[in-house]
Amino acid sequence: MCLPVVLSLSSPAWSQAAAYPDRAPRLVVGFPPGTGPDVVARTVGQRLGELLKQSVVIDNRAGAGGQIAAQAVAKSAADGYTLLLGEVGSIAIAPAAYGKLPYQPARELAPIAELVRSDFVLVVPPASPARDLKGLLDSARAAPAGVNFATFGAGTPGHFGAVVLAEQAGFKVEPVHYRATGDALTALIAGDVQAAFVSTALAVPQIKAGKLRALATTAGTRAPQLPEVPTFAEAGWPRIDFTAWFMLFAPADAPPAVLDTLSRQAVAAMQTPELRQKLQDAGFTLVGGGRAEAEKRVRSETERWAAIVKATGFKGD
């Protein structure tokens, strides 16, 4: 009567899950070192490694708004040793924006845990004549050639945020897509472009240093780091309410027991007081939701962004 159980426990899949991890997992990040996503990956990765009793190696594969990293993990071995710090652009927006996307998030990537979220700040160069949101929108409506918005890549939240704002406020927008986050920030600070939606985590240091001016945030309430900056809702634009989120993913065919282990330890890592303080100070909102919550979030966000992409008519290929 016990034989089926013995055979089940002796299977290679069970043995692999029971021994996990027996070497260092690799966490792939689709953005350069020093950016907000990299800060999340390194902060969470260090604590996750302590809980797993294996170092978590950070692998930065920047480019294409996170799609290079997402593709690399989606096509990797489904053993739980190659993980992705996935974000809204490459996971929820890209499937609707790119008809020839070389990976399919819904089929090839399994959500493990939602870690943090980050709202966006509408910023302008310090020399901009726009002192507030109304000033920017008034000048944008009066500009026949439109307003240049920097983005961190076509199909990213900042890109569609600019398009949606332009449609609602009645002005023409010309997105200027940059391959690297640093290039976009440099152009924005120099005044080569007129505005951009930048994540709170990335914007706060630049705003505090006087290199950018904040006009409004997409958050539901004012950001603790920027208490003087109004929300779009306060300014009369409640539909400008998008956020970026960051989750751990693994290849979809990874053993369920391995996914459960990763999810449990990732959620535990997010409860560490020092980790929470560091990420909050960096401008992130802490989440720490497990597999069920992460899966639900991905489904709802994919549906929401698909509708936005369709409404804009954007096609990336």
From TrEMBL:
InterPro entries found in the cross-reference section: BUG (IPR005064), Bug_dom1 (IPR042100)
Family indicated by similarity: Belongs to the UPF0065 (bug) family.
Protein name: Tripartite tricarboxylate transporter substrate binding protein
Organism field: Rubrivivax rivuli
Lineage: Bacteria, Pseudomonadati, Pseudomonadota, Betaproteobacteria, Burkholderiales
